[in-house]
Amino acid sequence: MRGTLLAIVQDARRSGDLETILTIERRFLENDRAEYVSSRAMRSSLDVALAELKIAERHIELVKDPVQYRLIDEAHSLPKRRVGGLPKDEARLFFGSHATRLLNQDKSRLDRQEKQIIEARKQNMRAGAKLYEARQRQALGLESAPNKKRGRDQGMEF
């Protein structure tokens, strides 16, 4: 069962389909809330995650319409509300805060397979953030972000 879950989560990331990534994450959150809540704090955290996800899903619909999304862009005009020239709107906040939430969950007592699933979900949040940023760029008529290479010798090719 867990192997199948892991494969589904990984396949969602590979698909590059933002809506699929978020749908799968919503199912995890709803299931955790229904089956595994052991404290008021845990319930509250899951409620916040689900509320943030709902707002992120609304922004994903808005970014499909460049005219509507320009209003969000204008509302996030201060430098501290922008990252990489793009608005740090509620969808981007969700991806960051939820990845942190998953990181904290990964520190709890889980078996190896559970940790693999959590890690795959974190990777999905990173992939989702990149997919969303690409949609922001498209909606605002900006060029695609340059590919960032990691490594010590970046820019030292001959």
Report what the structure shows.
With 158 residues, the chain is mostly helical. It is 70% helix and 3% strand. Helix 2 packs antiparallel against helix 3 (40-62) and helix 2 (18-35) crosses helix 6 (112-139). The protein is globular, with a radius of gyration of 17 Å. The model is unreliable at 152-158 (pLDDT under 50).
- Global shape: globular
Estimated helix fraction: 55-70%
- How are the strands ordered across the major sheet? 1-2
Strand percentage: under 5%
Low-confidence stretches: 152-158
- The strand count comes to 2
How many structural units, i.e. domains?
A: 1
Order of helices and strands: HHHHEEHH
Helix count equals 6
Using only C-alpha atoms, the radius of gyration works out to: 17 Å
Structural class: mainly alpha
Region (Disordered): 136-158
Protein name: Conserved protein
Coiled coil: 103-130
Keywords: Coiled coil
